[in-house]
Design a protein that fits this description.
mainly alpha
Length: 135
């Protein structure tokens, strides 16, 4: 009922339904967040976002699999091409290889890292690489 009150009004039925779905999705998310332990909120939000993006056709199964199954689990360092830079740990190199194979956007990542190794090493060794600018 709250979704009906909160959803934006619209003249077109399709737009009204879209507004209702969006309001319901928002209310459901708020309800789930209130009922979860703090440590479970971020993974649940990530999973929800991935489902929404996959349903919309903007996130493909290969990208989801690359996030869930790391290269270090699936690949062997002996069977893969030699890592070009000694500062890259074996597990990280296998993850880079796996990501480049599974997600089209990252197809050239191993070569890009190899070409700009000083910038990537600086980023990799940063205290907060998630906040630093990508090379």
């Amino acid at each position: 009922e709250a979704s009906f009150r909160r959803a934006d009004k619209a003249v077109l039925v399709e737009k009204r339904v879209e507004n209702l779905v969006e309001a319901l999705r928002y209310q459901s998310t708020c309800y789930m967040h209130r009922s979860m332990f703090w440590q479970h909120r971020t993974p649940w939000t990530l999973m929800l976002a991935m489902r929404v993006e996959a349903h919309a056709g903007t996130l493909f199964q290969s990208a989801i699999e690359a996030l869930l199954h790391t290269g270090a689990e699936l690949l062997s360092i002996a069977a893969e091409r030699t890592k070009p830079l000694p500062w890259i740990p074996d597990r990280v190199w296998l993850n880079i290889i796996q990501l480049s194979r599974k997600v089209e956007v990252f197809k050239e990542l191993p070569e890009v890292i190899n070409r700009n190794d000083i910038l990537w090493k600086h980023w990799f060794e940063d205290d907060a690489p998630e906040e630093a600018r990508l090379p």
